[in-house]
């Protein structure tokens, strides 16, 4: 009995010892910054201003709620996340179903499908930029320019930039989701599919009644990651629009305020306003789908 | 499987497959073609009679040569490599220890800690770059590789821990218990039995961490300012685009050279990576 408790105590000590480096690092570069950000969002801190920052309460937040620019950025962010996630999921499922059956050259196709995700986004985005918004004197720039003006005049300025960022995100993200769902399909025992073939002749019914329910945890995680990444997207938008603000999302807005404008207080408040978005996404994802076992819990 | 008619196979299989593959590969082809196209052809008018938008008749390596000789591109490559290796090493070390503790040891608050480490993975860089910029200014780390080596673990450690925890759970406990009976301490059993078995998992976490830090953009954009200190993604975007002048050939050459090694490594180890992912979902 005594020996058992000492072993247990030793286990506990070892556990904390092993967790120490992780916790230390995460506390200093994650928990502390988030705390600092919450506090800063309540002040008017700015390196351009003399004297200590003044406490302004919720003024930063209130200013944004009254600002139509903010609502525009928020709306764009939501539409962006929703559109890309739906398209990524549909295309990714398509990839996975096509690749689920063996055929000649499958390994090569698999590699091709995976490449957009494996390739650094920051540089493949340049290829897209060159294709979609070419510089004036290039061979096909007249054609792309015409498309751009047509789209912009139909849906308002910045629409083409929005379309190009969305296309890029879908291109890159569906690659990941496809590979991820394929792993999920491969993990399902093939007997279940064979059984389903006997039960129903329609592949459509089999897909909805057998494949989808079995893949639920994978779908949930894929949707969640995709939405979360789209909400917080800053890099893709930044690079595909050449650093100009053509259409605002919350991420680029905060970047301009903080780094270019030096308004740390307001920028902190703005990026913290992403948090409610995240919570909604989390809730919705785990309401619709069962939470996958082993992630987090 | 059932015997299918040929036209059905074409409609439901070959045609969609071709569309998918062409769609995923076209941007890469476009980058390649732009990188080897001579300048004269790059800036020629759309209506020129000899126009060949989808291929080039005089491929040239001029842009690659310029990139290596006239810009600090080789230096960017080295910076990126150094930063990626250092931050991957730190994150793997932390992730291994923490993952083992969370998967195997029973201690109070194990569940809470596990969940909170997972939740930190969801804190996006967009939320963190403002306070981190402030911290880095306070410690005078701005414009040094350490600014990135110490901040990349914020998103690397949670992922490594989570992935390795899933992997450790698939290793049978009995192996460890045998070693304990033979006289090994818990720590010894972890080092000599569990870690060697977990090498595929460690490899997949390492590759993932390496590519993530190689591809990182926002922190590198915010924390580094001098041209010779930059990483490949930021350097290519910020130094080869000056105002409205784009060095297109060099840009594409840089985009290709800067990432082909990573893409290759990733593709070789994709099996490990996928097993690691599914292993951690199934728990």
CATH class of the domain at 82-249 in chain A: Mainly Alpha
> Using DSSP, what is the number of strands of chain A?
0
Quaternary organisation: heterodimer
Helix content of chain B: over 70%
Figure out the total of helices of chain A.
13
The CATH architecture of the domain at 82-249 in chain A can be given as Orthogonal Bundle
Biggest sheet, spatial arrangement of strands of chain B = 1-2
Distance between the termini of chain B: 32 Å
The total tally of domains of chain B equals 2
Structural account:
The complex is a heterodimer of chains A (297) and B (283). Chain A has 297 residues and is mainly alpha-helical. Among the domains of chain A are: 1-39; 82-249, MetI-like (MetI-like fold, Orthogonal Bundle), CATH 1.10.3720. Chain A has 13 helices and no strands. Chain A has helices at 2-40, 59-65, 68-100, 106-118, 121-132, 141-155, 159-187, 190-199, 203-231, 235-240, 250-260, 264-272, 274-288. In chain A, helix 3 runs parallel beside helix 7 (159-187). Chain A is globular. Mean pLDDT of chain A is 78; it is low at 291-297. Chain B has helices at 6-35, 39-42, 62-70, 73-104, 110-121, 125-138, 145-151, 153-169, 173-181, 186-197, 199-215, 218-223, 232-239, 248-257, 260-268, 270-282, and strands at residues 241-242, 245-246. Chain B has a two-stranded antiparallel sheet. The radius of gyration of chain B is 24 Å and the shape is globular. Chain B has 16 helices and 2 strands. The mean pLDDT of chain B is 80. Chain B has 2 domains: 1-35, no CATH class; 64-282, MetI-like (MetI-like fold), CATH 1.10.3720.10. In chain B, strand 1 and strand 2 form a beta hairpin. Chain B has 283 residues and is mainly α. Classes of the chains: A mainly alpha (297), B mainly alpha (283).
